[in-house]
Amino acid sequence: MQSNPFSMTFGIEPNNYIKRIKESELIISEFTALNPSNYVYIITGIRGSGKTVLLSNIANHFMNNDDFLVVDPGPKNNILENIASEIYETGKVKKLFLKKDFSFSFHGLSFSISGDEPVSSINTIIKKMLDYLKKKKKRVLITIDEVDNSAEMKTFIEAYQTLIRLKYPVFLLMTGLYENINKLQDDKSLTFLYRAPKINIEPLNIKSIEIAYKKYLNIDSVVANKMANLTKGYAYAYQVLGYLAFTSKKKDIDEELINDYDQYLAAYVYDKIYSELSNKEKELLNCFEHNQEISLKELAIKMNEDSKYISVYRDRLIKKGVLMSKTYGMIEFALPRFYDFLKSINY
Which 8-state DSSP code applies to residue 266? Predict the structure, then answer.
């Protein structure tokens, strides 16, 4: 039996991955430049937009580059210790540290540095490692998926900020939800994050989705186009609809397929997205009477609030990826069939 080319597992690069060439090339060219202008990039977007897959795709590129060492310490616990441990354990450079004149001890690892006294600070350990790597003309890429506003993350960012100031060849690629990145940036001690360029994940190209559906589902162009438009370019929706159509062997869209599609989107992403919205944001979304555009003026009337007040929540929902504005002064749902989801939970 032919395996399903579509995947509903988050963070895994599917066989039919539609590459985000512009974003990938921007980051890769910057990090490989002789004199990089940026050492940090932040990828933001709503759940299911493809942040993790883009990060993984870029990380895999650098894993095949002998000039780079890629470490992925995770966003939660012991970030700095994990970075030091991964640098040491990675096969590419482990042999560089297996010398009598270079050693330290922490978390079960033990070696000494040129006969100096034992090193106890993890920051000092990492600097010593980077000093050695710098002499070998190697660069380090740290990737962190789904950052949060934790104390551990703040400690890491402060340490990383120092490494950049000292001109170490260490690069950082992070992903995160808009609200988490925003909270992290609000910390006065992490001001350099405000200057870090952000890549907001845009919807996938509808034509690319149509071509993929036609190829993998063996359907005609008309049906492939209808299915592609039904995703609105939302990466997870592209995978879900393709997965369901492939499994059911359907050659056209019918009510059963749409119902299954709605259930998967609700269960795996929309319930979570909606639960994380504020009451005012939910109130704004529920002002849509149909799955169509609405103006700020109409929202202000429906919510009985000043337009300037409403615009704050409108802008937040746009930045979070729930709404979008194609026409000046007008907003609509960015997520496919999100209006239908709202109807189902408010029924």
Answer: I
Contact 188, 1 (CB under 8 A): no
Q: Do you know the residue count of the chain?
A: 347
Q: Tell me if residue 71 falls in helix, strand or coil.
A: strand
d(CA 287, CA 301): 10
Residue 4 located in a structural domain: no
CA–CA separation, 190 and 70 (whole Å)? 23
Looking at the structure, tell me whether residues 165 and 57 fall in a common domain. yes
Q: Domain of 95?
A: 21-200
What pLDDT is stored for residue 203 in this prediction? 95
Tell me if residue 277 falls in helix, strand or coil.
coil
- Is residue 7 in some structural domain? no
CA 53 to chain centre: 7
For tokens 């149909």, the residue is: 290
Considering the domain architecture, whether residues 327 and 343 belong to the same structural domain is answered as: yes
pLDDT at 234: 97
Residue with tokens 């000494």: 112
pLDDT at 91: 67
Mean pLDDT of 276-287: 95
Same domain, 135 and 258: no
What is the arithmetic mean of pLDDT over 18-25?
93
**pLDDT surpasses 70 at 96:** no
| Alpha carbon distance 261, 110 (integer Å) | 53
Provide the whole-model pTM.
Answer: 0.88
For residues 6-34, one letter each, b for 16 or more C-beta atoms within 10 angstroms of the residue's C-beta and e for the rest, the string is bbbeeeeebebbbebeebeebbeebbeee
- Domain presence at residue 6: no
Q: How many domains does the chain have?
A: 3
Rounded CA-CA distance 104/120 in Å is 8
For residues 210 and 191, membership in a common domain is answered with: no
| Alpha helices, DSSP H, located in the chain | 21-31, 51-63, 79-89, 91-97, 122-135, 151-165, 178-185, 192-195, 206-217, 221-231, 235-248, 255-265, 271-275, 279-285, 296-303, 307-320, 338-345
CA distances from 136 to 29, 72, 130, 139 (A): 21, 21, 10, 9
